[in-house]
């Protein structure tokens, strides 16, 4: 590893440690959730926060916006939200001399960190308005394409699909989220600390650690981090083993999985493994990073068959079984 890159990684690791401490001033517990959210931003990707209302998802996004020094906007998704409410629209204005012209008014998507709150409460038509922005970092309105600010990240929150008034996200949009982060209920001790910290006279304020330029530089460093051949092979073996039509797929996948992850899943694992190693103070990812990221990366990129769901099969259990089997084969080899 080049000496300059080594120094950059070590310096960035120290700064990320400060960022995690800054987030912890307002987010108590949920260490894994914070780590995955920061990792997604280090990779230049988008994250989907999955959990019931009231678990701090909105607070987390607001805190990350402050700590990372990004301009942020928030959109509350509702059934009557229209695409123009997100992307913006052209309005006809009359000048003082009586002439008329269209002027484009930017929507809230023109931000460096966009919080899409309860994204699955909007109609599929409105959800699809985010597709081009998430993938290409630009939007097209009235035939004109406009670039979004850099960096651009979407952190979306989603309520469980079983709740009333929710719409399932289309597979194409789910695939554009680098990672799905499950936000669980806190344990008793953590919940006690949350209650005490948030019901007093004043709440802690998170300091700003990064700015847009330094975040973009950090994303470049992540992409230059070395990855061993064994880790690359493990990523490919894991992703391909989750496809039911792959000849090397295990029986549990061929029997229970309707469709599996595409190449974007392997790309996401490669980037997130680097980012996770960096957040944990290591210079390169190892097989343990791949195994720990299997659920967050693959869980929203594959689906069980109808028969498997009827039998009560859990997708996360299938992913764990495949990841364990692939790791054993790699170790034996």
UniProtKB/TrEMBL annotation:
Domain named ATPase AAA-3: residues: 46-179
Gene Ontology MF terms: ATP binding; ATP hydrolysis activity
Lineage top rank: taxon: Bacteria
Domain ChlI/MoxR AAA lid: 253-321
Keyword Nucleotide-binding included in the entry's annotation: yes
Cited Pfam families: AAA_3, AAA_lid_2
Keywords: ATP-binding, Nucleotide-binding
Entry annotated with the keyword Nucleotide-binding: yes
InterPro entries listed in its UniProt record: ATPase_AAA-3, CbbQ/NirQ/NorQ/GpvN, ChlI/MoxR_AAA_lid, P-loop_NTPase
Protein family per UniProt: Belongs to the MoxR family.
Annotated protein name in UniProt: MoxR-like ATPase
Species in which this protein is naturally found: Jannaschia pohangensis
